[in-house]
Amino acid sequence: MINIFNSPIDPSQLDEFAQGRQDENGGDEKIFDVKKRKPQVTYSSDGRRMLDGVVEKQHESNTLWTTTISRGVANEWREEATGTRLQKTKRYIYKVSYDAQVLVRQTFRRHATPILIATNLTLFLLFLYICRLFPFNK
């Protein structure tokens, strides 16, 4: 005889293929006396889920957003609290580099016009010096 894995059956494995237990009357012995009832799930035409013909409880958007934000904060705190020194160092470096990028962007936005004027003036003077159009030191 060959079992489901296409290998010969050992005599110790024959109980896998044994017939079910029978009670005194010759019928099959029931293991569970009550059949668990599953709720019938249907969907309405607008996509709402219904359990046994009753619309499933709807949550308000405020509740859903509160849950989402609190889970996000909790996950962030958990990540910060756990991990090796290397992982904590990487997170710290990432945060510092992000803060530096934000600072550079804000500084550039705040001082963009003076920086551009100074750069253009420097390039113009360099052009005049290279072309010898302006007497710097004769």
Structure description:
This protein has a domain at 105-138. It contains three helices and three strands. It has helices spanning 61-81, 85-110, 112-130; strands at 41-43, 49-51, 54-55. The model has no long low-confidence stretch (mean pLDDT 80).
Strand-pairing-aware structural class: mainly alpha
Relative helix content: 40-55%
Low-confidence stretches: none
Strand order of the largest sheet: 1-2-3
Quote the average pLDDT: 80
Major beta-sheet overview: 3 strands, antiparallel
Kindly report how far apart the N and C termini lie: 109 Å
Order of helices and strands, N to C? EEEHHH
How many helix segments? 3
Please compute the radius of gyration using only Cα atoms: 38 Å
Q: What's the number of extended β-strand segments?
A: 3
Shape: elongated
Strand residue content: 5-15%
Tell me which oligomeric state these chains represent: single chain
